[in-house]
Amino acid sequence: MQSKLSRRIYLIPYAIWIALFVVTPIILVVYYSFYDLDGNFSLENYRQFFTAVYLKMTLSSFWYAFLITAISLLVAYPTAYFLVRTKHSQLWLLLIIVPSWVNLLLKAYAFIGIFGKYGAANHFLEAIGIGTKQILFTDFSFIFVSVYIFIPFMILPIFNALSELNPSLLDAANDLGASRWTTFRRVIFPLTIDGVKTGCQIVFIPALSLFMLTRLIAGNRVITLGTAIEQHFLVTQDWGMGSTIAVFLIIIMFLIMALTGNRKRGV
Amino acid sequence: MENAVIIQFNHVTKQYQNDPAVLKDVSFEIERGKFYTLLGPSGCGKTTILRLIAGFTEATTGDIFIDGKKVNTIPANRRQVNTVFQDYALFPHLNVFENVAFGLRIKKMKQAQIEAKVKEALSFVNLKGYENREISGMSGGQRQRVAIARAIVNEPEVILLDEPLSALDLKLRTQMQYELRELQKRLGITFIFVTHDQEEALAMSDEIFVLNEGKIQQSGTPIDIYDEPINRFVADFIGESNIVPGIMIEDFLVEFVGKRFDCVDQGMNTNEPVEVVIRPEDLEITTREQGKLQVTVHSLLFRGVHYELSCTDEDGNEWLVHSTKKAAIGDEIGLYFDPESIHVMRLGESEEDFDRRLEAYTEEDHHAK
Ligand SMILES: Nc1ncnc2c1ncn2[C@@H]1O[C@H](COP(=O)(O)OP(=O)(O)OP(=O)(O)O)[C@@H](O)[C@H]1O
Ligand SMILES: [Mg+2]
Predict the structure, then answer these.
(1) Residue nearest to atom 27 of ligand 1 (CA)
(2) Which of B77, B87, B134 is the closest to A179 by Cβ?
(3) Given A172, A178, A187, which is nearest B85 (Cβ)?
(4) B262 contact A CB<8A
């Protein structure tokens, strides 16, 4: 009895935190989503969401988040695979993680400098004879910077999964006739899929609601659900519509979590 | 006519970076259909030999032949050899059936054929009906059998087993020793089995290779190796031994502890310094007068089947005796042994010389008959 009670006592700060900063905001968001601009109860916001404008926005959000996740995965998996095999893998890993400690805004401004008309990237293009190009405010720069920001979060879980892999399983596959590619397909990838799923969740969900970068790097050419929420709350003051989009975003996140949920396996 | 030799090592050396060589000029031949054991202390290079045969690592110098073909540069996935790993290395994301079927699927075999073969392999190792189990739901002994099934289902020429029994408890281990030996006889496949347990090696093998520090010390049948160890290391490692310094006076006569004894060894120089081995179970306790050696008992252990006595002679040599008779600590007793129980070892004799000498006098025996 005693221990059960004391365990509950330890849970109190957590419970308060969850109640104040998770449950309450969600309830508020759901509440606001049912009120129109004039403060009347209505389902107008939900009807609005299913019009072409917002559906297109949703689709484009998904598309960009998908691209960012896919490219991050394509870069992160080989990197992690290589890192696990190197001598000072922990040091290399640290070097990859360090940039994620730098504030997002600072990184965005740095890239504005690099990709700007007179930035390093254009200097380089000039030097190799291609000439100055518009880099900033393009899809390319948006995806490039997003991938740069998210990649450590993709590498980490994959690296962990790979380093937990028993190396004699690779010998075993090889012994049974598998080529390197078959070994990857049949053994390495399936056994690190949980790391890949975690990485994709950590990247895809925030990528869906990115908003600062869309303005700073993509010059508002890319409108995601995140941008729309920000605009509604800060610019048009349409809290109801902003909340409605947020509700959908939350639903989508839960769906993604459920779909990519990790099934734990024993060894 | 098939060649009897399936695997051959020709002056193989293996060295990792700048470390001292792990295998030093190792040569041997392995014949089809026999049960071989690599026996040696930890770190002597047993796993390295298996990895060289399987193709997980390459020899630094020397050649390896499988079935008459040089395989130095042939990768593991194209060698007709399968391995049972020390930790079994079963795929945790696949069930028992898929683990066993792994090699067959890579060969793109038809589903019906795969099912038949996997079933057969599983019944071979007494695991019928376990097809759909997850690996995490299998016991140690069952996992080991899955690992064996996964190897035999590919019908390889050779199966390599790296200390497959070391993780099992004594009872299961003894049972698996019988099962493995039985399985090898039924399949007729060459088994190369690694262990550092000498009893296991003696019980299971057709041939044993005793390794130490990257060299093969001696190879032969369990009886040969037990009865005629080539040097102190082998005598000590295989079973327990009493080893004392001696002098070979002439053929059939050896001197130790200041006395001369008849023996059955020959082919050495007169008055050559040698080492004499007598196994503890070949020593019998008698009275001081009847004994060939006089010793004092200074410790006594009950070992279940027998007593283990530790005694000292006048020269201070220690004698271990296994006897069903009991003696008290401090007793002065005599030890009796037959001339056949004495085994004389030359100092630093190579395996070739040893074999040549043994052969020379077994031939004489034949002539004498
Ligand atoms: N990849 C490697 N790099 C460097 N040294 C190695 C490597 N693999 C093995 N060794 C060394 O080679 C020697 C022989 O190793 P091996 O694994 O063959 O021993 P073993 O006889 O199987 O021992 P055990 O009974 O402990 O399994 C050891 O000294 C080991 O440290
Ligand atoms: Mg080993």
Answers:
(1) B42
(2) B77
(3) A172
(4) no
At the top level of CATH, which class does the domain B5-227 belong to? alpha beta
B212 lines ligand 1 (CB under 6 A): no
Residues with CB under 5 A from ligand 2 (ion): B 47
pLDDT for A135-170, tens place per residue?
888 888 999 999 999 999 999 999 999 999 999 999
Give the start-to-end residue ranges of the domains of chain B. 5-227, 240-280+338-369, 284-336
Termini Cα distance of chain B: 35
Task: State in Å: Cα B335 to ligand 2 middle.
Answer: 40
The pTM assigned to this predicted structure is: 0.82
For atom 13 of ligand 1, the residue with the nearest CA is B43
Give the amino acid at A102.
Answer: V
Distances (CA, A) of A256 to A55, A71, A199, A200, B232: 18, 18, 13, 10, 68
B135 chain-A contacts, CB cut-off 8 A: 267
B368 φ, ψ to 5°? -60, -35
Q: What is the pLDDT of residues A169-210, one digit of tens each?
A: 999 999 999 999 999 999 999 999 999 999 999 999 899 888
Contact A265 B136 (CB under 8 A): yes
Q: What is the DSSP string of B89-113?
A: ---TTSBHHHHHHHHHHHTT--HHH
| Helices and strands: H and E segment counts in chain B | 9, 20
Q: How far is CA B182 from the centre of its chain?
A: 17
Q: Is the CB of B51 under 6 A from ligand 1?
A: no
Q: Is B136 on the interface with A (CB under 8 A)?
A: yes
CATH homologous superfamily, domain A52-259: MetI-like (1.10.3720.10)
What is the whole-number distance in angstroms between the Cα of residue B43 and the centre of ligand 1?
5
B284-336 matches B240-280+338-369 in CATH topology: yes
B240-280+338-369 fold: OB fold (Dihydrolipoamide Acetyltransferase, E2P) (2.40.50)
Reading the block at residue A36, the tokens are 């129109």
The correct CATH number of B284-336 out of 2.40.50.140, 2.60.120.260, 3.30.200.20, 3.30.1330.10 is 2.40.50.140
What backbone phi and psi angles, to 5 degrees, belong to A101? -85, -15
Q: Is B17 on the interface with A (CB under 8 A)?
A: no
Tens of pLDDT, residue by residue over B56-85, are: 999 999 999 999 999 998 999 999 999 999
